[in-house]
Task: inverse folding
């Protein structure tokens, strides 16, 4: 029996929903092997990251273990390093000791997503807080509490203001939602610190455009800006963040903002693995056909943030945007096309019209545009929560999120530090010892195998 090997590289929305489609039919066949390679053994529900940062949800509320979702698809926790299209192999590293793994494929689906783009600003890369993964959101929340605690024993108000100044770079969805969440958290939490006052807090959002949330249009962008300003958020439009040294944010117009926290949400770029393939790209994203196959490479497919899929129906020559609602539908469609290719059936082009876009801007306020209809305020915020609650995978997680939201209404946010600086230092030291021991064990095992093979010869 000839085995058909399908490898999915990337465990984000596109990769998971493709795997879930294979789970229904193709992965159950004895002559097909489907493997999902993911950096983490869970799927992160990124639209709710800012709620973890604000303490509205716990980190475990917005993650789902892949092995609980996929029973017939083989799940491998590893980091994709390179792809050899000639030998049709995916090279990965996995485990504490960085074991090298190789996976052969007949069909390879690339759903590697994107990573943070610092635009070659070393200071920003070294000192800024990002909002890309679960660790980022948890770190930001613990950082805010730690800075409040540190501000208590400071006697100089200027130093306190520096500690309690939070700057966000970027006024898109992630930047706006994070800014609103941070502002809510620090202003509502400071009342538990009698030595401090709200006047010491400064929350700033830097956005180079004319209005924030440009994806929702000027009307909703202006509304969101007005609401943020009413809650004492400074919105600086026009200049960009030019540098950050851990103490001072410098803008392109020369403005300096003393702060210990810069939250960077100003750009993403596709995985560097994409560039190494040598295939045609569009702004770093892999250029694909309407059916998400890569031109000129048999058995290679791409979807999600790393793929540039032409939007033919729009007539504008543009590509579908890298959003979650597109990615999950792309994953389903490309999985069906891979199955069709294996069975010798015709492929279908990807077609999808955006249903709408939603944003939470803090203090139970939101903005929304659904089927062309724009609305804002509490109704939009309630709609935001309802929509994303429905999209959250697995009933168990939905119930936990509902419980967390309900408890937050009656009892407010918790302000404990889940991980302190002392914990980080101890964990780092222990992790270094574990990693060194694992690599040593790996080297000894490799040497023993080599000697065994030499003796056999």
Result:
């Amino acid at each position: 029996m000839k085995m058909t090997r399908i490898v999915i590289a990337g465990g984000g929305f596109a990769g998971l929903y493709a795997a879930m489609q294979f789970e229904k039919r193709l992965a159950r066949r004895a002559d097909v092997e489907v493997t999902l390679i993911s950096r983490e053994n869970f799927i992160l529900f990124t639209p709710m990251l800012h709620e973890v940062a604000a303490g509205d949800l716990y980190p475990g509320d917005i993650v789902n273990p892949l092995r609980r979702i996929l029973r017939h698809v083989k799940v491998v926790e590893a980091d994709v390093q390179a792809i050899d299209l000639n030998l049709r192999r995916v090279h990965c590293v996995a485990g504490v000791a960085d074991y090298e793994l190789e996976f052969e494929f007949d069909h390879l689906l690339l759903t590697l997503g994107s990573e943070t783009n610092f635009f070659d600003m070393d200071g920003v890369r070294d000192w800024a807080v990002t909002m890309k993964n679960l660790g980022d959101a948890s770190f930001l929340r613990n950082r805010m509490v730690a800075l409040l605690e540190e501000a208590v024993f400071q006697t100089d108000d200027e130093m306190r203001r520096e500690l309690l100044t939070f700057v966000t770079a970027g006024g898109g969805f992630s930047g706006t939602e994070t800014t609103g969440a941070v502002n809510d958290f620090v202003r509502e939490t400071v009342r538990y610190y009698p030595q401090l006052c709200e006047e010491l807090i400064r929350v700033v959002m830097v956005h180079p455009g004319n209005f924030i949330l440009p994806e929702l249009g000027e009307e909703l962008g202006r509304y969101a800006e007005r609401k943020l300003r009413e809650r004492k958020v400074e919105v600086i439009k026009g200049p960009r963040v030019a540098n950050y040294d851990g103490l001072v944010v410098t803008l392109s117009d020369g403005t300096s903002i003393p702060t210990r926290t810069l939250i960077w949400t100003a750009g993403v770029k596709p995985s560097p693995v994409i560039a190494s393939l040598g295939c045609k790209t569009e702004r770093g994203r892999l250029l694909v056909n309407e059916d998400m196959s890569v031109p000129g490479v048999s058995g290679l497919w791409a979807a999600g943030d790393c793929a540039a899929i032409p939007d033919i129906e729009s007539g504008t020559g543009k590509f579908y945007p890298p959003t979650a609602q597109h990615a999950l539908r792309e994953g389903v469609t490309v999985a069906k096309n891979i199955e069709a290719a294996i069975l010798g059936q015709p492929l279908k082009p990807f077609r999808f019209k955006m249903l709408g876009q939603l944003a939470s801007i803090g203090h139970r306020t939101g903005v929304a545009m659904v089927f062309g209809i724009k609305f804002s305020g509490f109704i939009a915020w309630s709609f935001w929560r309802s929509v994303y609650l429905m999209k959250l995978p697995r009933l168990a997680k939905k119930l936990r999120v509902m419980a967390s939201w309900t408890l937050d209404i009656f009892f407010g946010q918790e302000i404990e530090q889940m991980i302190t600086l002392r914990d980080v230092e101890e964990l780092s030291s222990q992790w270094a010892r574990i990693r060194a021991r694992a690599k040593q064990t790996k080297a000894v095992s490799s040497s023993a195998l080599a000697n065994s093979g030499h003796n056999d010869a």
Notes: The chain is about 40% helix and 25% strand. The chain has a mean pLDDT of 92. The radius of gyration is 24 Å. The longest strand covers residues 32-38.
